[in-house]
């Protein structure tokens, strides 16, 4: 193939791949509806302090978007780490404040230059409200801390995204079976398992695992 044509083809593929990635994560820019949120959301967050993992109870007051942090790390248990206040962050050289709907399990927040990962939540009211937006428990939070927050250009993307899916045109064996699709963002790999009937977001039998999906698009 002519070198110039080959170069043009490579650039075209690179551009299409970039557009596919941007489209795939476009959902993340949408604001979730917190209009019926509880007055307080009780979240669990963690921070990598050098090599030590420190954990916190994060209380988000949805009425005014203020946050308080109480440490739950062994040895520091129940010490007030941050009194109720709004959390500032810098974006495009502009000082802004986190809103309540930007704080939920799977997302990162910056607490006065400390990147914290929200890995779970507690209390029936908080859990029942937040589970409508996706997974609320990230057991591998230590790995997320080691990987660090996403780059500024990629937005606040959780390390995993989960979807409920059905097989298009599925007949016989796969008819009426729902699948739980787990997308590992940094690895660009998919795991697919049967969805358990009853509790939402619970894994059943493994269907496919570790699928390289770097060239796939996402259609919801």
From TrEMBL:
Q: Which GO terms describe its cellular component?
A: axoneme
Which is a Pfam family this sequence falls into?
Answer: DM10_dom
Task: Give the Gene3D superfamilies listed for this entry.
Answer: 2.30.29.170
Q: Which organism was this protein described from?
A: Loa loa
Q: Where in the cell is it found?
A: Cytoplasm, Cytoskeleton, Cilium axoneme
Record keywords, A-Z: Cell projection, Cytoplasm, Cytoskeleton
Q: What is this protein called?
A: DM10 domain-containing protein
First-listed, main subcellular location of the protein, grouped into a coarse class: cytoplasm
List, for all copies, the residue spans of the domain called DM10: 37-134
């Amino acid at each position: 193939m002519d070198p110039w044509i080959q170069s043009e083809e490579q650039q075209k593929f690179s551009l299409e791949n970039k557009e596919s990635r941007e489209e795939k994560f476009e959902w993340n820019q949408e604001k979730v509806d917190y209009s019926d949120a509880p007055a307080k959301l009780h979240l669990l967050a963690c921070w990598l302090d050098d090599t030590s993992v420190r954990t916190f109870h994060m209380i988000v007051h949805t009425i005014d978007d203020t946050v308080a942090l109480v440490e739950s790390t062994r040895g520091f248990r129940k010490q007030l780490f941050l009194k109720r206040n709004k959390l500032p962050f810098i974006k495009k050289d502009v000082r802004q404040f986190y809103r309540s709907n930007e704080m939920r399990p799977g997302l990162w927040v910056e607490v006065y230059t400390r990147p914290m990962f929200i890995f779970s939540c507690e209390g029936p009211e908080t859990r029942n409200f937040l589970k409508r937006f996706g997974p609320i428990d990230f057991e591998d939070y230590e790995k997320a801390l080691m990987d660090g927050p996403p780059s500024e250009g990629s937005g606040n993307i959780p390390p995993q995204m989960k979807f409920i899916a059905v097989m298009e045109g599925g007949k016989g064996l796969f008819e009426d079976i729902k699948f739980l699709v787990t997308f590992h963002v940094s690895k660009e790999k998919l795991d697919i398992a049967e969805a358990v009937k009853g509790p939402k977001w619970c894994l059943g039998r493994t269907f496919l695992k570790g699928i390289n999906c770097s060239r796939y698009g996402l259609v919801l």
